[in-house]
Every structure is written in structure tokens, then in C-alpha cells.
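S., here's the first fold you wanted:
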Amino acid sequence: MLVQTLVALICFGVSTITAFPSHALALPPGSGVMEVETPGVDGPIVVHYHRGSGHSADDPIIVVLPGGGRNGDSYRDSWIDSAEQYDLLVLAPSFDERRFPGPINYNLAGMIADDANLRTLETVTLREAPEEWLFARIEAIFDAAVARSDSAQTQYDLFGHSAGGQIVHRMTLFAPDTRIRRALAANSGWYTIPSSQTAFPYGLDGAPMDEQQLETAFERDLVVFLGELDNASETRGHLRHTPETDSQGLHRLARGQSFMRLAAEQATSKDAEGFAWECAIVIGVGHDYRRMGQAAAEYLYGASENVGICDTQ
């Protein structure tokens, strides 16, 4: 018989749950940590959660993907007020550097092998098994949370900021069978544009996708969620600058608008029915995951007062 271990530590209102294996254990209200076993990984994935005090089986679950710092705890904390206001279960995984090494590998959701030339990305080797990509692990995290909270939800919302936003839009493209209800990709540094004229990972040439999958992706509820003030070129910062990324724009705001414009053009050229992607801009906010997360919660579950429509012309 498999043995389940439950460790409940109550300290300053925070509980920790360690589960082996990762099926139903109670997920109490408040903030805590749960560990989820997924295939092909040495050890469980740490997921920081907050379950609103009013969250019930019929209330939403949202997965929040952190930026390059992998700081799921900080991202979870930034969503606590929203979780309480809107009765949410927030799940913020930390995909640690040891098992998921390198900023580019994280941005690309583990789709590429470790031997890829990460500086130039001139030669990219795909991991052949999709279950090794982060998309499948996010699905496993959702399953574990549903079981441990007795949730009736069959879909989840998805928010990612910066590097997390890159994962979100690529999950929309390359994981058509995932159970995402609404996806918000916030302030991504660069994009995989939906064009077969550009080589993967900047485009779809050589990517694991066919025409039908692209049409399915266009039907997904994806919002490119941009900060109005996220318009610094960061030539010495964390923003990737290559000929391919700079062709998308010189800063995150421009790149997000360019991505949406190109996606709409591709959908039109392919006569894709039901193009559902949208672009929204958060007024007065830059590269700030806390304020972008608050705006995302209002956009998804409340009334958005400072969110407008992007200029993608």
C-alpha cells in the first residue's frame, strides 16, 4: 500500500502540505505549500498556494506562473488579496533551477533539450516527449489541487508574467488539449510568432505543430496583457536582444502589440474561424508583476477600470 505523509505546520497562519503520492489530501484555506509529483522529475514540484476563505467547489482555480526568478512564493503572496476578494484558489509553482535549468529553457517551457545553443538558439533540439514539457506539469498541478480541495472545476485560468507570460502564450500554441479556460500572458519578453516563415523558437518553422493545431490555438481564450509603461529597451538588462526578437520590437510593449498584429494577420490569411485572441493594456503600469496581477484579477473576475484595448495597427 502506498503511504501518504501529511505534515501540517501552522506558523504565522501558513500551512505546509507534503504529499506522496499526489492525490487527495485536504487543502485548507489560507496560504501554504503543496508538493506535486510529476513524471520524469527527480522529486516533487513545489507549489505555493492561497485558498480564499470563501473558496468552494464551484469557485475558480487559477495557476500563476512567476517570471525568471521562479519565485512562486512572492507571486502567490501578491494574489492573496485577490484570492480573498474573488474566492479563488491560487496555485503558483516554483520550477527550480536545479531541475529546470537556464532562463531560456524556462521561457520555452522545457520544450528544448539541454544541449541546445541557448545563446544564439541557432540549433534547437526539441524534447520529444511532451510530458517532459512544463505544460503537462501544470496540468498535473491542477489535478492535484482539484483532488485536494474537492473542487468541481474542470478548467482553470492561467496567468503568467514576464518569463511566465512566455510560457502562457506557448502553452496556448503548443498544448491544445490542456484545460485552460482563460489565459493571460503578461509582459512577455519575446514571442513565438504564429508564422511558418520564421524558425522555431521565434516562429513555427520546425515547431511541433500542424495547421489544424494552429487553428485550434487561435480559438483559445488568450489575452496578451501588457503594461502601458513596460516600454524600456533594457539593452543591458534581462530583455533578450537578437535580430529575431528586435524584429518584434525594442521593448515588451511593442513586442506584445506586434505579436497580436501578426497573429491576427495570420488568422485572416488562413481564413481561421473563431480567432479569439485579444490584447489588453493596463494603464499606468510597467514591468510590475504585483500590479499586473491585481489588474489581471480584476479583468478576469471583477470590473476593470484601468484596462484598455491595445493599438495593434
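And the second, which I think is the more interesting of the pair:
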Amino acid sequence: MKKRHLLRGLCAASLALACLGQIQAQTYPNKSVRLIVPFPAGGATDLFARTLSQKISEKLGQPVVVENRPGAGGTLGADLAAKAQPDGYTLLLSTSSTHSIGPNLNPRMPYDAVRDFTPIAHLGNAPSIMLVPNSSPAKTVKEWIDHAKKNPGRLNYASSGNGTIVQLSAELFKAQADVFVVHIPYKGTALAIPDLITGKVDVLFDSLPTGMPHVRDGRLRALGVTTLKPTALAPGIPAIADVLPGYESNTWFGLFGPKNLPTEVVSRINTAAKQVLQDPEVMDKLLRFGIEPVGGTPAQFSTMLASESAKWKKIITERKITLE
């Protein structure tokens, strides 16, 4: 008898919580929304957030306030968002570094990238470009692979540091092309560019905004982009995947909430985000940042997250990549 009363009480409590969630979702939002950016002001993620925030504010009917919380490679801000109330008033605009790469490099992260967040929207992808000196004998990706196979261990690639997307893009390339190329980490690709131009470095997988100006000015040669197909962000440059099927490396940008965010709230934010990504003004700004707008459903975003995490975990494990 007592068990029956207990079960009824639990059912009533669950129903009450469900009803409360529906009421909150129907009135959401009724105050300003905090959008945490776990990186410093002025960076690509911050510029992305500020481009979106005003337009999303218009769709939601409430201010969306960008709050920069940098530190520990994005970990501090992401952790803050993970521990917020799941009411839709604290969101996170983050990247592959905090959810696909970082968790596989650092097992002591203060959050679980899957369990502690609610994926809302895949906002965009920022591909990279494979750059070589003009003195390189390779004019194509295939020629560069052939050149590397003829010179195992004699060629090198630059990165912006251990564990960065720049290193991982090169290691993924090495794995699929089956070549031995030495890693030279720099403190940022800007410091590597002069050595690439002079031929001290043989290859660099750089971001489009920083790499393409050197290609247009004739100081460097572009062999391929890291998207599955050619992109309008780099006209006339083939995809590396044309030579290495399935090769893809992007810095993705996504919108998250804390775990247990009500489905109705997720849908409301996702719809607003997709509408904003189709805005011509927003699209133009993102393309100038070197970012391709994406969109899609929360389920599609979750699938992408799982795929990305598995891909980088494999490379990090097999290549014994560390932050040191």
C-alpha cells in the first residue's frame, strides 16, 4: 500500500515537473539571455558570437548578451555554462577545441563534453588550407604526397602548438597519406608563416583568413582545402579529399545549453539560430571570417559531435599527441 502511494507521488511529481517545463518553454524567453564565449574578446569565436547575438535577440524578443569567459583553452567558460541552470538563459557558443579535441587530450576536464551539455545548433565550419612555399616541387596534393614518400623524415610541417587543430589536421593528413613528416610547433601560425615563405618549413595547414592573403599576394602556394568538397571560401582550390577520400578537418562552431535543457526551449533557440544563419548580412560577415554557415537540427548536431570526437580521439591516441 505504501509502495503504491509512493509510486503515485513520484508520478505526480514527474507530471508536475513536465508541466512546469512546458510553461517555462511557452513563456521563454522573458528576460535577457547570457551567451558565454569561452575565449578572449576579438577572436574568431567572439566575433562570431557578436555577429549572431544581435540577430538572435531580434528573433527571441529579448537581449542576448555576450559574456567572454576565457581561460584554460576554453575550459573555464565551457565549465561555467555546463553548471548553469538548464532554463535557456545561459548558453554557450563554443568550438571543436572544447568539445571534440580538448576532452580527448585532457582526461581531467572539469566537465563531460557529452553528458553535461545539450547540443542546440551547429552554427558553422571554418576550414583550413594546405600551404607550401613557392619553392616546393609540388604543385598538387598528390605531388606533395609523392614528394614526401620519396623523402621520409626529411620534410616538416608547422603548427600553432601541440594539440591544436593545425597539428591535428596535419596528423590526419599524414595518417591517410601514409607519410612521415616531422612536426615543428610554433606559438601561433603567424610566427610560422615567414619560415614557410622562405622554405624552412615545408607545409602548413592554416586557417583561410590568415592563409589566403599570402596565396593571393603570390607569397605562398595553396594545394588544397580541408573541406570534403571545394568551397566558395577558397575559389579554384581543390579539396584534399579529392586525393584522400574522406579527409576533412574543420574548426566547428556550435551553440549549447546545460544538460537537461527543455526540448521546447532547445527547439525555440534552434529555430532562431537557423533563421539568423540564413540572413544575408550574417552570411556575408561569416564568409568574410572564413566560416561557412551550417544550421540543421539538434539531432544532426549531436551526430556530428560524436563523429568529430571519435575521429580526433583516434588520431590523438594513435599518434600519441599531447599538450606538452
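Why I say that: The chain has a mean pLDDT of 93. The CA atoms of residues 193 and 204 lie 8 Å apart.

Talk tomorrow,
H.
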